[in-house]
C-alpha cells in the first residue's frame, strides 16, 4: 500500500534535532513552491542561501541529466572530467591555484582548518597552532568547525572542545590584536556573518586582518560558504573588498541545491595537503561537479551579478516601505541577496514569530538568530516575485503588529 508522508512522520521517524514547518513542499519552479495540498509559496529562503538559481533551473537540470547518463561516482582512486573542469574554472575565476572538492560547507571549513594547522607545522613548527575566529561566527557542524565557530550553544554538551581556538569580536580589530601572536597559524572570518545576524565586515577590519596575518606569518581564511558564488553581487565577496585570502571555502550556492563544497588555496599552501593527509568520500563526485560547473558558469556573468545588485536595492526599498508603516525593524543590512532586517526594540526577539505567519500568507523566509529576519532568495528571482513576496510579508507583519 502506498503511503503519503506527513509532517507527523517527521516526529515519528526522524531524529529531533530539527523543527521543520508544518507544510511539506513537493514541487518547485523558479522562486515558487507548492506543497502537498497544492498551496503556492514564494521562496525568499532559498534553502538557506543554497538555491542560487531557484528551483529546477533548466541549466542545472540539464547538467544533472546529461551527467547522470554518463558517470555518477568513482571515488578518489580515480579522477573525473567534471571535477577537473570545475577545479580549472574556479582557479581561473579566483585568486586560487588549487581546489579541494568535498560535499558541504562544513567539510570545506574542516579542510581549511586542517590545512592551516598542517601548513603551520610544516613551515614553523608545532607551537604555531592558534586559530582566531569571532564571536557569533558560524563555520559548520563538525566538532572542529563548531568549536571554531563563535556560538558556544552549538558545541556545548559534547565534551571537551579542541584547544588553541580563540575568539575575538567581529569588526573590532583591537580585540584581534590582543590575541594574535607568532603562535597564530590562522584567522578565520566570514566577510559577512550569516548565522550571526547578517553583519557585513568593514573594509578596515578585513584589511587589518590581512595585515595582521602578514605580520605574524599566519593564514587568512575567508569562509564564503554563505556569501560565495554570486550571493554578494560578485562571484566571491572578497572581490568586493579587494582583499585576497590565503584560503577560501565555498558551498551552498556553489551547487545550486546539489550537495557540494570546495576549498580554494594557493600552490604554496596546498603542498601541505600531501597524499593521505585528508580526504572526502564523495568529494569531486561527477554529478555534483557537473552541476556546480554549470552553476558557476551561469552565475559568473555581468548580467546575473549585476542583477543581484539591482535586486538588493529592490528588497531594501520594499523593506523600508514596510518599516515606515509598522516600525518593526531597527536596521536593514546585508550584501547582494543575503539581507537581514533586525527587529526594533518593541519587537526584540520576535523575528521567529514572523515565519509561521509568512507561511500562512504564502511566503518562505528565514531568521538569523531570534532578532533578525533573513532573506536569501534565488539570485535570478523575478522582480514580480519580489513584489508579490513583499506584499505577503507585509500581511504577515501586519498580523504580528495587530497581535502585539
UniProtKB/TrEMBL annotation:
GO MF terms held by the record: identical protein binding; N2-acetyl-L-ornithine:2-oxoglutarate 5-aminotransferase activity; pyridoxal phosphate binding
Major location (coarse): cytoplasm
Protein residues bound to N(2)-acetyl-L-ornithine: 141, 280
Recorded catalytic activity of this chain's protein: N(2)-acetyl-L-ornithine + 2-oxoglutarate = N-acetyl-L-glutamate 5-semialdehyde + L-glutamate
Miscellaneous comment: May also have succinyldiaminopimelate aminotransferase activity, thus carrying out the corresponding step in lysine biosynthesis.
Cofactor note: Binds 1 pyridoxal phosphate per subunit.
Enzyme Commission number(s) of this protein: 2.6.1.11
Cofactors required: pyridoxal 5'-phosphate
Any Gene Ontology CC annotation: cytoplasm
Top-level enzyme category: transferase
Matches recorded under Gene3D superfamilies: Aspartate Aminotransferase, domain 1 (3.90.1150.10), Type I PLP-dependent aspartate aminotransferase-like (Major domain) (3.40.640.10)
Name the UniProt record assigns to this protein: Acetylornithine aminotransferase
Pathway named in the protein's UniProt entry: Amino-acid biosynthesis; L-arginine biosynthesis; N(2)-acetyl-L-ornithine from L-glutamate: step 4/4
Family to which the UniProt record says this protein belongs: Belongs to the class-III pyridoxal-phosphate-dependent aminotransferase family. ArgD subfamily.
BP GO terms, sorted: L-arginine biosynthetic process
Pfam family, one: Aminotran_3
Amino acid at each position: 500500500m502506498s503511503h503519503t508522508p506527513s509532517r507527523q512522520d517527521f516526529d515519528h521517524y526522524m531524529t529531533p534535532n530539527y523543527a521543520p514547518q508544518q507544510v511539506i513542499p513537493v514541487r518547485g519552479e523558479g522562486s515558487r513552491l507548492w506543497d502537498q495540498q497544492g498551496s503556492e509559496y514564494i521562496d525568499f529562503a532559498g534553502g538557506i542561501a543554497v538555491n542560487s538559481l531557484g528551483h529546477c533551473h533548466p541549466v542545472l537540470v540539464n547538467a544533472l541529466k546529461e551527467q547522470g547518463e554518463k558517470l555518477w561516482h568513482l571515488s578518489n582512486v580515480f579522477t573525473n572530467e567534471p571535477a577537473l573542469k570545475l577545479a580549472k574554472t574556479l582557479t581561473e575565476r579566483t585568486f586560487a591555484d588549487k581546489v579541494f572538492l568535498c560535499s558541504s560547507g562544513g567539510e570545506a571549513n574542516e579542510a581549511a582548518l586542517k590545512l592551516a594547522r598542517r601548513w603551520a607545522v610544516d613551515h614553523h613548527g608545532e607551537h604555531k597552532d592558534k586559530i582566531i575566529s569571532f564571536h557569533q561566527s558560524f563555520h559548520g557542524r563538525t566538532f572542529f568547525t563548531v568549536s571554531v565557530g563563535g556560538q558556544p550553544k552549538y558545541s556545548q554538551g559534547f565534551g571537551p572542545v579542541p584547544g588553541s581556538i580563540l575568539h575575538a569580536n567581529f569588526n573590532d580589530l583591537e580585540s584581534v590584536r590582543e590575541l594574535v601572536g607568532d603562535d597564530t597559524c590562522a584567522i578565520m572570518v566570514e566577510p559577512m556573518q550569516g548565522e550571526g545576524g547578517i553583519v557585513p565586515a568593514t573594509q578596515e577590519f578585513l584589511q587589518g586582518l590581512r595585515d595582521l596575518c602578514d605580520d605574524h606569518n599566519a593564514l587568512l581564511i575567508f569562509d564564503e560558504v554563505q556569501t560565495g558564488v554570486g550571493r554578494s553581487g560578485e562571484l566571491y565577496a572578497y572581490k568586493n573588498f579587494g582583499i585576497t585570502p590565503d584560503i577560501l571555502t565555498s558551498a551552498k550556492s556553489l551547487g545550486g541545491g546539489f550537495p557540494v563544497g570546495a576549498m580554494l588555496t594557493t600552490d604554496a599552501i596546498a603542498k601541505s595537503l600531501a597524499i593521505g593527509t585528508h580526504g572526502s568520500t564523495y568529494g569531486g563526485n561527477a554529478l555534483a561537479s557537473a552541476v556546480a560547473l554549470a552553476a558557476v558558469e551561469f552565475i559568473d556573468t555581468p548580467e546575473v551579478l549585476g542583477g543581484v545588485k539591482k535586486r538588493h536595492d529592490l528588497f531594501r526599498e520594499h523593506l523600508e516601505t514596510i518599516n515606515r508603516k509598522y516600525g518593526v525593524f531597527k536596521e536593514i543590512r546585508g550584501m547582494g541577496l543575503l539581507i537581514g532586517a533586525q527587529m526594533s526594540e518593541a519587537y526584540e526577539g520576535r523575528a521567529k514569530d514572523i515565519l509561521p505567519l509568512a507561511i500562512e500568507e504564502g511566503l518562505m523566509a528565514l531568521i538569523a538568530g531570534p532578532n533578525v529576519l533573513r532573506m536569501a532568495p534565488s539570485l535570478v528571482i523575478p522582480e514580480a516575485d519580489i513584489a508579490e513576496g513583499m506584499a505577503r510579508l507585509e500581511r504577515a507583519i501586519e498580523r504580528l503588529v495587530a497581535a502585539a
